[in-house]
Structure formats: structure tokens, C-alpha cells
Amino acid sequence: MINKIVSTVEEAVAGINDGATVMIGGFGPAGQPAELIDALVAQGAKDLTIVNNNAGNGETGLAALLKARRVRKIICSFPRQVDSQVFDALYRSGDIELELVPQGNLAERIRAAGAGIGGFFTPTAYGTDLAKGKETRLIDGRGYVLEFPIHADFALIKAERGDRWGNLVYRKTARNFGPIMATAARCAVVQVHEIVELGALDPEAIVTPGIFVKRVVRVERSAAGSDAGVQAA
Amino acid sequence: MNKLNRDQMAARVARDIPEYAVVNLGIGLPTLVANHLPRDREILLHSENGVLGMGPAPAAGEEDYDLINAGKQPVTLLRGGSFFHHADSFGMMRGGHLDFCVLGAFQVSACGDLANWHTGVPDAIPAVGGAMDLAIGAKQVFVMMEHLTKQGESKIVEHCSYPLTGVGCVDRVYTDLAVIDVTPQGLRVLEIVDGLSFDELVRLSGVPMWRAQAKAYA
Known about the structure:
The structure holds two protein chains of two kinds. Chain A is built from six helices and twelve strands.
């Protein structure tokens, strides 16, 4: 019997090794798998490369992982925010490497990894500092930049509901990077608010088919963070 | 002269958004445009984090932090709205499916180059987000900004001194002084605020401009 459900967040993050590349879902706090990140902090893996849209908010979640000095490099589009003080300090002291990627290139590089694409030409960033040193090409008179996929060892994702085959549905804008990160990682780990029986998810509405998912763990809705004020969907 | 305030600028941009348009409003000043879109036009707002058909801010107490905009503020969803993942969202931009985007800017050059993501100051922490994707993706790129910096320098320039967001991507600029199109023949002034002459606008801007039959602004 296929059963991807694990019973604790500790089991969910087991095996994440020092030096791993870990994708973390979320757009700011929405969709950020806070409990999996907390479990990763406790698990102790270090020298990590993190892929996320941002670089942590406040002192919890991704910011806590950074603060614990487990992250060697971050690949993201928008590190600077009003509450990104943990990242800001590490960056200014030279204690973290930043690869800044336009958000659409970040999404497409993740998608490309999951879809087996070796690289792609994109018009985004053509002629800007973020394309410096990269191969370019004129196609039908328009300038494009060659970008390469971003693969990951692990992805930590938050979804709303899942089943034992790993099929997932998300909730509102908490979906964001989850579906593509699930495809780009060797081992996608998902925290869900609800585990349902096989067949309970409408097959026409499953967003991430279970093939992309290795582990599913149930996490209660918390009163803090992006779960504040959430009504049952 | 009668400089426009931020809400008047937003109202002026909103007037040019037609029915059926799909629009992405950038963070900051452009966000105000949403408050001025005519209610009798069906216009779809796109948000980079995976929403089409975004509605206004929720009533106090109704916030759902799983439903936010690009500025990470809580929003609502219109009936008929949809959610999608990030690669689809940026495919909508890059693929030319958005009719308009409205962006803020540090500088716009005479040939439509846009600088709005980085001041280039060595100690500044760079952050680009979706700006570069929007700049090259939407069918029409509108910029909305104050005409002059606080020091009185023109933000419309011959060449951008700040790092570029996109090359030759801006179609039209709405400032607190004028509406200006970027054309192959250079900057074409469409409207000027009351009490400001064309010659004075050009002098303040410090770049060559030419004039359509300039109408009163706003």
C-alpha cells in the first residue's frame, strides 16, 4: 500500500543533509511551511542553500533558520522587506551569499527543473545588471537571456489538504510556489491541515498529483502567522 | 501650477484603463489606481502571487492572510476570480496576456528605459521581485511617479543613472505634472497641469519633448 503520510514533522524533515539545497514554499508568510522550518531548525542541518521568494520575515520561520546560521546561500527575488532584519544583518556582515533572481525567472527556473528542461531563453532582465555575464540571443528581433533550471534536494511546502498518495490542493494565494517546487525537488515534503481518504479530493481539482510528493504530514492550523483568522475553506 | 496629488494621479491613470482590461498594479503608488477604477467597467486585476480577479481590501476583522496581494496586504477575490501557481502567474506576464501594468519608477529615460528596482547605492540590499517580468511582459507599460525628486531633479532623464529594470519598455508616463508618451520620435506630451507651460515642463525635465495638441490635465 502506498502511504506517504508520516506522523511527525521530525520524520518529515529526516535525512535533510548538510549542504543540501532546500526549496521553501511561500510568498512572505502565505504558504510558508512554518512548522516544517521549525523542525528543520531543530534537526540541525547546516550549510544549506535555500530557495524562497523572500529571505524571511520577522524572527520566525525562514528568518529563524537564517538566524540559527544554517544557511550558506539564498536564492530569492525579494529579500529586502520592512521586517527582514535577520537577513539584512547577515548580508551586510558577509555571512550569507545572495543570488538575486527576478521572480518570474525564479518560478520558471524551478518549473524547468521539474519538467526536465535544460535551460530556456527569457526576455526578463535582458539588458539589465541581473543578466550580466549570461548568454543572450536575439530571437525574432527581441533580446533574450539564457537561464538554467534550479534543482533541489528537498522542498518544504504547505498545502491545505492531501491524501496518502500525496495528491494536494492548496488554499488561495498560499499556493504560490508550492506546486512547482514539489516538481523540482528530489524529495518534496508537504505539511497539510487535513488528510483525507483516497478519492475524497476531486480528481479534476487536484493541483499537485501525488507523483511529485514523497512525504505528507498533518499540522494543526496555528493561531499565528498566515493562519490567523483563517476560516475553514 | 496645480500639481496633482497622489489620488488625482491615480484617478487619471484609472481613466485610461478600458473595460475588459487585465491589469497588474505595482506596489506603492500604482496600488492607489484600484480605488479609482470606474465601477461600471469590468476590469480584472492580476496579482503576481497567483490571483486573477482580485477585489478590494476586506472589512476589518475579515482578513484572511492566505489571500494577499503582491504587497502582502490582505485582499478579497471577486466572483469568478481564480488562483494559480507562480509559474502560471508569470507566464501570464511574460506571455503577453496582461493588457496593462502600472509601475512606480525612480527614473524613465527618453527611449523608455525603466529604473525602479535598485538605487545602486553600495550598502543597499537589492530586491527585484516581479518588476523586471512586468516591465517586459505587459502589452502596455504605464509608469506613475512624481515628476521631480525631492531635490527637484527630473525623474524623466536622457539616460537612466540607476540600474535598469527593463530596456525600452515604458509606453506612457503619468506624473504629477503631465502625461507623456514614449514614442519612436521621442517624448510626446499629451497633457499638462494647469498653470504650467510646455516650455516650462521641458525646462524642468531637462530632456527634449514634443507636443501633441496638449490638453488640460485631469
